[in-house]
Amino acid sequence: MAFPAIPATLTGRVVGYVPASSLEFSWSWDGQRPDSAVAIRVNAGPGEQTTLVIEHGPHSDDADGRTAHAEHWAGWEFFLPKLRSLLAE
């Protein structure tokens, strides 16, 4: 996936998939070794409600790990409201 505004390219691979339940994938920027795995589980709730659970990590407990955790958290806080808006359309 290319991000021309940065410019950067995000690459990864699917490492786990359970239909209608979960997706797990790795990613890295511009050919670097994948440094994290993201597990996304979508669980159907009652009625039309859906819960999205995201696990992003692992992150080490050193300064680099804490920085990566903060950056990833900020990224999810930025993009998840956009996803919610798109799904509501």
What key phrases describe this protein's structure?
89 residues, alpha+beta, five-stranded antiparallel sheet, 1 helix, 5 strands, 43% strand, globular
Strand order of the largest sheet: 1-2-3-4-5
Shape: globular
Structural class: alpha+beta
Beta-strand proportion: 35-45%
Query: Which sequence of SSEs, written as H and E, runs from N to C?
Result: EEEEEH
- Please give the number of β-strands: 5
Low-confidence stretches: none
Mean pLDDT: 77
Report the radius of gyration as a whole number of Å.
15 Å
**Residues in helix, %:** 25-40%
* N→C terminal distance: 24 Å
How does this structure look, described?
With 89 residues, the protein is an alpha+beta fold. The chain is built from one helix and five strands. The chain has one helix spanning 63-88, and strands at residues 2-3, 8-18, 22-29, 36-44, 50-57. The protein has a five-stranded antiparallel sheet, with no helix packed on it. A hairpin with a 5-residue loop joins strand 4 (36-44) and strand 5. The radius of gyration is 15 Å and the shape is globular. The model has no long low-confidence stretch (mean pLDDT 77).
SSE blueprint:
Blueprint: E1 2-3, E2 8-18, E3 22-29, E4 36-44, E5 50-57, H1 63-88
Antiparallel strand pairs: 1-2, 2-3, 3-4, 4-5
Could you give a short description of this structure?
The protein has 89 residues and is of the alpha+beta class. It is built from one helix and five strands, in the order βββββα.
